[in-house]
């Protein structure tokens, strides 16, 4: 038996709440970079109040040409546990800018040197399923075979399944194969962290996520998927010659299939997400005039505990002590 120790995920939710509260002011205003910058600034500010010695392994990337919480940046007070950190202050910057559902703020954390560093990889192929189907999937198998095996493991028929797919030209063949197999599809323009989480969330209507999305987002998702007992099979899938060349020069094996245990090697993982624009996964920020309401998901891998937190923020008190102007 162990004495209960500090659940760092309960600190991380303050970080994602801050980013969500700041970035949600830009909902639907068409200013993608401004919304992202607001989330970055708020996230960095709160991170540096935490008693951790953190290094960002997954930060804001070159792919998005975004304001950065950059890879290698140190976060926290520099005291306390040494940890690897994966962040996305606004996962779904286009969703936020256009006022579409499922933009979220996310953070994953694990002990130092336990988080996969994808280097110059921007994209990876992913297959995400809940715990019941984790042993029956194969990234090299035909789509129809995977869907048949997943349906059987979940006690369903294939035509009961709902598959999350990003609505991108690269997925034209995948979409055709899913439809031919008989499964149903939810197409989303962006937000594959939310898609991966929905695939392992028993309260969600999504049963599986398929397709190629961001590699950094895959590592962030792995923190939550591992804590929830699900599985993600992934393979680096460069979309441009420059990306492929950089990966080969750094010695990455483009045929290797990664599991969540490869992407995050420790079970002592922490994850937090807060809704920004709202949607099927997490409700968004609701401003009340004198404050705001946020909705968050908090997960601790070591215990498997999942918390859904509804927080009420009151400007008259918060603005007296906060260095972030939310109101």
Distance between the termini: 46 Å
> Which range best describes the helical content: under 10%, 10-25%, 25-40%, 40-55%, 55-70% or over 70%?
25-40%
Structural class: alpha+beta
Please state roughly what percent of the residues sit in beta strands, choosing from under 5%, 5-15%, 15-25%, 25-35%, 35-45% or over 45%. 25-35%
Draw up the topology in text.
Blueprint: H1 9-23, H2 32-47, E1 53-58, E2 74-75, E3 82-91, H3 93-98, E4 104-111, E5 123-129, H4 143-153, E6 162-166, H5 172-181, E7 184-188, H6 192-200, E8 208-214, H7 215-228, E9 231-236, H8 241-249, H9 260-263, E10 270-275, E11 286-287, E12 291-300, E13 305-314, H10 315-321
Parallel strand pairs: 1-3, 6-7, 6-8
Antiparallel strand pairs: 1-2, 3-4, 4-10, 5-8, 5-9, 10-12, 11-12, 12-13
């Amino acid at each position: 038996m162990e004495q209960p120790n500090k659940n760092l995920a309960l600190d991380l939710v303050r970080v994602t709440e801050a980013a969500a509260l700041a970035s949600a002011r830009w909902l639907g205003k068409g200013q993608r970079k401004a919304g992202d910058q607001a989330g970055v600034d708020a996230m960095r500010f709160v991170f540096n109040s935490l008693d951790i010695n953190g290094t960002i392994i997954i930060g804001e990337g070159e792919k998005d040409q975004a304001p950065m919480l950059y890879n290698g940046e140190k976060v926290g007070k520099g005291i306390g546990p040494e940890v690897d950190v994966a962040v996305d202050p606004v996962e779904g910057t286009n969703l936020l800018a256009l006022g579409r559902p499922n933009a979220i703020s996310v953070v994953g954390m694990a002990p130092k040197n336990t988080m996969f560093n994808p280097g110059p990889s921007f994209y990876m192929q992913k297959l995400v399923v809940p715990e019941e189907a984790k042993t029956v999937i194969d990234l090299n198998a035909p789509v129809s075979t995977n869907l048949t095996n997943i349906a059987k493991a979940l006690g369903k028929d294939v035509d009961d399944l709902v598959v999350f797919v990003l609505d991108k030209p690269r997925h034209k063949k995948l979409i055709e194969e899913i439809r031919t197999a008989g499964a149903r599809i939810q197409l989303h323009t962006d937000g594959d962290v939310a898609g991966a989480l929905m695939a392992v969330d028993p309260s969600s209507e999504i049963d599986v996520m398929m397709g190629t999305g961001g590699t950094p987002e895959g590592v962030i998702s792995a923190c939550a998927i591992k804590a929830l007992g699900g599985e993600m099979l992934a393979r680096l899938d460069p979309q441009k010659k420059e990306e492929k060349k950089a990966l080969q020069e750094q010695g990455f094996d483009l045929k290797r299939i990664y599991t969540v245990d490869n992407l995050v090697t420790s079970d002592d993982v922490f994850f937090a997400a807060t809704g920004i624009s709202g949607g099927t996964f997490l409700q968004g920020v609701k401003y009340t005039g004198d404050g705001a309401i946020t909705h968050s998901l908090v997960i601790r891998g070591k215990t498997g505990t999942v918390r859904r937190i509804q927080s009420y923020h009151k400007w008259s008190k918060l603005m007296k002590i906060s260095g972030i102007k939310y109101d």
